[in-house]
Amino acid sequence: MKKAQVVLVPSPGIGHLVPAIEFAKRLLDQDDSFLITVLVIIKAPFGPDTDTCNQSMLTTIDTRIQYITLPKVTPPDLDPLRSPENYFTTFMEAHKPLVRDAVVNQVMSIKPAVPVVGLVVDLFCASMIDVANELGISSYVYFASSAAFHGLLLYLPTRQEQAGIEFKETDPDLIVSCFANPVPARVMPSVRFREAKGILGNSFAELESHAVRSFSGGGTPPVYTVGPLVNVNGHSLMGSNLDRHGKIMEWLDDQREKSVVFLCFGSIGRFREAQVKEIALGLEQSGHRFLWSIRKPPLEGHFALPSDYNNFEEVLPDGFLERTKNIGMDLGLAVEMTLDYRMRSNNLVMADKIAKSVECVMEEDREVRNVEN
User: Which segments does the entry list as coiled coil (predicted)?
Assistant: First the structure.
């Protein structure tokens, strides 16, 4: 069987590395003729090193994947608070020579008879498309988020070309083909994805039919839906907190089916004290049971990741914890949860069975897929 090599370049951070690895595993499960290398950027311009968090565990996740750790670069001599986007973009640009050297000297030269057929980058590594172009390799952008979000990012350059101005809060709602409803201009961000040979999305047509159909009109690189990509085997790159995980699962098992609201805003999601209090009041007044990941923002004037609160009472409304002790659970950084689902009958549907059921729906000869197409 003819072999081919694929190189993945995720952005630094666990939220980018894990989806890249899951995609690599899915690709190898479908076609084991690929040789896959993941280039690991171990140091983000803020937050902990990937190296200290999880690099030692990488090879235990899947031995079919090769990992190459890139050297650290000096953080940009820029004020990150003035423009976080420019700061991070400059930081990633500094990795382009390192990515090129790794591909040439540690991938191509090691197995010269096996061609590198693709360089797969995530949305924050789009500048690495330059490396792919220089080396004559096809480039692909991998999105771990929804198809609707992919469509939004593809829409932005077109809108800017047509309007020639940035978005204003006073602009009318926008008609974006990948969204079923108009989008307020004030929520729009402000992209090189069209230069890639293709886009890989962690979604599937039956889940986001409207968004996926919107890509069929042309004007964008081919979009391949490769999802859902989920880690159903319980391997964690964040380390484990079995005690906290156990307490959360025990609490969830005691709640009624479909009765709990989960609030988690990602690894960098955090709110000012006034906003936290508003969320808390809304939860309390709703009467719904909740599981809430509350993160503490960095000090004013500091550019850093959120941290855990030592005492939730310092940010929550007076008496909130006491009043909601029977309906809510507050935690810091949310622990990783498997997708196991316990039904009312107390039967446990395991995560791998959920994944297999979704994959069954996605098979080309399934009636639901034929209807969708």
Answer: none
